[in-house]
Each structure stands twice: as structure tokens, then as C-alpha cells.
Amino acid sequence: MCYKEFKNFFNSIYEFSIDGNLEIYLVGGFLRDWFINNEFCSNDVDFAVKGDAKNLVNKFIKEYGGKVTEFKSFLTSKISDIPSLNIIHQIDFAGLRKEVYEKDGAFPKVESTDDILEDLKRRDYSINTLAIKLKDFLKSFNDDTKNLDKGLLSKFIINSQKGLEDLENRVLRVLHFRSFYDDPTRILRGYRYKYKINGDFDNDTKELLKDARDKKLLDNISKSRILKEIEKIRNEQNAELILQDFESFFGAVI
Predict the structure, then answer these.
(1) Is this model's pTM higher than 0.70 or not?
(2) Were 217 and a residue from 107, 165, 184, 239 both cysteine, which residue would form a disulfide, CB within 3.0 to 4.6 Å?
């Protein structure tokens, strides 16, 4: 399970954030996957940062190495190919942000914010809106069980979009009715998450999927964006089943 390695990693990130006087949150998939499996099973880690994370990224690279790719328009730095950190394949440091979609299917206009709750509202599905201050996350490490303390984790978790309840019920729910208009790639991601949580879309989201199919919303985005999501599906254990499920409803898209 690599308990010690994960604990040391998160401690290092927290220390880097203190040096930079930053407020930092662990968000999204790492927390989602832990609550599904009750173990460390995700090798992608996403952090949301209040403030400029540039110095934090530089400190990380100095300590661990890796390749940095910056997406300035999205206030994000992505670190990959980390030679000294086998447990983590990719890390995202993203500034807290809100998004405005000026055209269906287009990339959003991004604005910074100091409010983590505002940041969480922009995400795709409720199960991906879980967040926790890193200093609180570190309190949940239990050296006796060599795992996280679920009670402490649940106590400190930011659950403003009711993602924990949806995870418990194995439900996929978008956050608003225009979600698929704003970003149709959420459709493909949804089918991937459906099998990751061994669940299903809630009734309202199913209706929105029908609308997305009927309005051909996937035609609003480039083939390259679709192929990128399909490639992620092909990396999943149930890839063939996921694609069959998707194509049985939407048809072939490439």
C-alpha cells in the first residue's frame, strides 16, 4: 500500500506550502478513489492552491525531479515523469478558479478565486468535488493501521456538493443542467467513472444524457478531444465494456 511513502510525500507538499504561505487542498480523484476502495490506489494527485503555486512547484522539482508542463490559461502546472517517486505518476497544482463558458463546447474563460467552494462548483460530477485542507488530511494518517482514519477524514472533508453521499450510493450526478453543453467531454468521462465506482447515473443525469445525444453535443468538440477521452477509457481495466456501454447509447463517435 506504500503508506509511508504517501505520508512522506504529502508531508513534503505541506511543508512546501508553508514555506510559500499558501493554503493548499487535496481535491478530486485521489479522495474519490480512497473512499471507494479504502486504500491508496490512485497514482494521480490533484491539489488546489490559494495563491501562486510557482515557488511550490519549483521546490517540488528541486526535491523530487520531474517534468513540468504549464497551462497558464487554466492556472495549472502539471508534473509528470517523476524519477524519484514511484507511487505517483502525475501531480496537478491548480490555482483556485471559477469558469465561464461563453460558447457551448469551447474551453472556458478562467478567473482566479479565493473561495474553494466556488472552485468546486465548476467540476464535472459530484463525486469529484471532494476536497480537504492538506493540513487536515495529514491528521487522518493512522500509523497503527497503516491507512487513513475514515472517521477523521470524513470529519474534515469538504462535501459541499454531497459527493460523499453519491459515492456511498454509487451515483453519478452532474452539478447543473448545462454541464454537458459547457463541456461534452464530461459525457465520456462519466461512462469511465460509472465503472470506476461500479455505479450508475442518477435519473436527472440520465435525462441530460438523452438530451446531449439528441442535440448531438459531442459534435461541438474536436475529434482530438474525443480521442483523448477514449484513450483514457482504453487504459481502464473494463475498457471494452465501457466503450460498448457508451456506444450502445451514443453510437460510434470516431
Answers:
(1) yes
(2) 184
Q: Which tens digit of pLDDT belongs to each residue from 133-165?
A: 999 999 999 999 999 999 999 999 999 999 999
- Which of the 8 DSSP states describes residue 102? S
1 pLDDT band (50/70/90 cuts)? Answer: low
**Alpha-helix runs per DSSP H in 126-215:** 134-139, 150-156, 163-168, 179-182, 185-196, 203-214
Name the residue among 104, 122, 103 with its Cα closest to residue 112.
Answer: 122
Q: In this structure, which CATH number among 1.10.110.30, 1.20.1560.10, 3.20.20.20, 1.10.10.60 belongs to the domain 174-250?
A: 1.10.110.30
Supply the DSSP symbol for 100. Answer: E
Intervals of CATH 3.30.460.10 along the chain: 3-166
How many angstroms separate the CA atoms of 210 and 206, rounded? 6
